[in-house]
Design goal:
single chain; about 120 residues; mainly alpha; 434 Repressor (Amino-terminal Domain); 8 helices; about 0% strand
């Protein structure tokens, strides 16, 4: 995956427009678009730091994303749907997934499920 693809995927998952992301990063919308499209293949380190900050991730996160395979169609749909959910709905879904994945265990909320998953 190219760096532009990784940035686009992170932005889409965050549910923000390229205009909003560019504003947060302090770069122009055309510059953001050029990076996402791959017209700029190697953005400057300072630009990458601004982009990562705008997306709430690190530059290392973006670089790791470039080393991963493209998500399959089902994962892409799940990420897009996830991005439009309200935070409480996300928490409820995570708790339900944890209940189904580990029968017999009680999960009051997503924090309980995430704490167990982090172990």
């Amino acid at each position: 995956m190219r760096i532009g693809d990784a940035i686009r995927a992170r932005r889409s998952a965050a549910g923000i427009t390229s205009r909003e992301a560019a504003h947060r990063a302090g770069i122009s919308v055309p510059a953001w678009s050029d990076i996402e499209r791959g017209a700029v293949k190697h953005p400057r380190a300072r630009t990458l730091e601004s982009i990562a900050g705008a997306l709430g991730v690190t530059v290392d996160d973006l670089r790791r994303d470039t080393e991963t395979q493209e998500p399959d169609a089902q994962s892409t749909v799940v990420l897009r749907l996830w991005s439009v959910l309200a935070p409480q709905d996300r928490d409820d879904i995570l708790a339900e997934i944890a209940r189904r994945a580990i029968p017999g265990r009680s999960f009051d909320d997503a924090d309980d499920a995430l704490a167990l998953a982090a172990r």
